[in-house]
Structure to design on (448 residues):
């Protein structure tokens, strides 16, 4: 009995010591890497934004000129998000926002898109998806076999009017946008979500540009 | 020196983590959809295995036998977390490729298996080598799995290489209009290909045994008669 107690106590002490030491090591690593991680997360974000909006088209500090959005059904977002505003010489250039397609072939597809001040889509990119490799993943230009003219580029420069008229659809549903046979669901999900997000942002663009920096956007009740 | 050679042989062939021990299948089957993915996961796992074997072999005299498994898991999880953070901070380009695989390594029981079966009983140098070659053995098998699945599933080789070496392109081996073979890309395809690989390994081993026996019989005719 005493022997058992002795073994249990010493084992417990060793476990505690190991936990403390390794937790400490992890904490030190975390503290040491935190500033670098934050910086690279920012750089990553900017790199992604540069893909949907040419960096030469604006001259403000884009990531600082942000408005926070509440969870927005129209954009497919269950959580709050940030919307960034690009300006050149103080004049509105474009809105950069997140959106999501809830109805991908295997779950949610995350998107980021830029909407110009005159209501056109600058470009859209897929940020996260779980579509089937080699089949539905052409929605991400990095995985698209057609590198020169990837599928997602067909949305560039399209007008919000197309979305408002209800014609922002893939060809199978009677719209102008191409898709790959055998993988319609991925294309349809991205197309529809992009259209909804573009229409949403274009309709509210004046209000969104007018908000003070850091403000919270509230949907006005009709 | 001979035990080092033995460790290397075990890791690469005789005790190959996937073909013989059949351990750590969850990440294996999930990730091996292409050569680049498989190879990257293999390298990341190799690194963690060498490190965890080193750490446990160095600390093994302080670890009571009764609580060794929780301590091993603690060490492995802490190491993986630190590798994850450090790589993200200081080797960011590499992290962009390997990063998504690193948390998966904690769930790979081959890491714990080598720590328990080898590093807990052996000196530091041998243990580190064991972790390293076991990882290399894993990487080789994963890469073969990845090549076969990618080729059958998508008709390409090296898809995703542009993320490792910018400017390089995947090679389309089969004609461009190859429709793909979905089951090879999905997990069942991984089981099928892995099964064939294990069968192939057993066949090679059986053939080698037959040969060894035949040579033995030839050289000792009296024993053959008996």
């Amino acid at each position: 009995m005493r022997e058992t107690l002795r073994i249990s106590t010493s084992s417990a002490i060793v476990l505690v010591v190991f936990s403390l030491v390794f937790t400490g090591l992890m904490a030190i690593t975390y503290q040491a890497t935190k500033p670098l991680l934050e910086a690279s997360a920012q750089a990553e974000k900017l790199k992604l934004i540069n893909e949907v909006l040419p960096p030469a088209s604006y001259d403000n500090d884009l990531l600082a000129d942000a408005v926070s959005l509440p969870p927005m059904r129209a954009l497919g977002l269950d959580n709050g998000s940030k919307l960034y505003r690009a300006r050149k010489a103080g004049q509105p250039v474009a809105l950069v926002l997140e959106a999501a397609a809830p109805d991908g072939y295997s779950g949610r597809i995350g998107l980021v898109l830029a909407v110009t001040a005159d209501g056109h889509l600058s470009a859209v990119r897929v940020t996260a998806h779980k579509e089937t490799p080699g089949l539905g993943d052409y929605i991400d230009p990095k995985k698209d076999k057609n590198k020169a003219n990837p599928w997602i580029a067909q949305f560039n420069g399209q007008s919000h009017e197309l979305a408002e008229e209800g014609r922002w659809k893939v060809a199978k549903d009677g719209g102008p946008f191409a898709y790959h046979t055998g993988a319609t669901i991925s294309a349809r999900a991205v197309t529809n979500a992009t259209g909804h997000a573009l229409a949403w942002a274009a309709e509210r663009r004046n209000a969104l540009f007018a908000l003070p920096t850091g403000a919270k956007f509230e949907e006005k009740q009709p | 020196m001979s035990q080092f050679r033995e460790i290397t042989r075990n890791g690469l062939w005789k005790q190959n983590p996937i073909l013989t021990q059949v351990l750590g299948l969850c990440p294996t089957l999930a990730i091996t959809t292409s050569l680049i993915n498989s190879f990257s996961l293999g390298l990341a796992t190799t690194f963690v295995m060498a490190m965890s074997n080193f750490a446990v072999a160095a600390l093994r005299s302080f670890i009571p036998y009764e609580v060794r498994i929780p301590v091993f898991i603690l060490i492995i999880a802490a190491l993986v977390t630190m590798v994850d953070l450090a790589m993200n901070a200081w080797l960011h380009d590499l992290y962009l490729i390997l990063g998504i695989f690193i948390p998966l390594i904690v769930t790979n029981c081959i890491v714990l298996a080598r720590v328990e079966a080898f590093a807990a009983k052996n000196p530091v140098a041998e243990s580190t080598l064991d972790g390293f070659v076991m990882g290399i053995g894993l990487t080789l098998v994963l890469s073969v799995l990845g090549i076969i699945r990618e080729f059958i599933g998508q008709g390409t080789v090296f898809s995703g290489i542009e993320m490792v070496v910018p400017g390089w392109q995947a090679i389309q081996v089969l004609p461009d209009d190859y429709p793909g073979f979905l089951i090879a890309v999905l997990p069942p395809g991984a089981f099928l290909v892995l099964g064939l690989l294990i069968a192939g390994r057993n066949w090679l081993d059986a053939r080698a045994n037959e040969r060894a026996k035949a040579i033995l019989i030839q050289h000792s005719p009296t024993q053959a008669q008996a």
Remarks:
- The longest helix of chain A spans residues 2-52.
- Chain A has two domains: 1-51, 53-210.
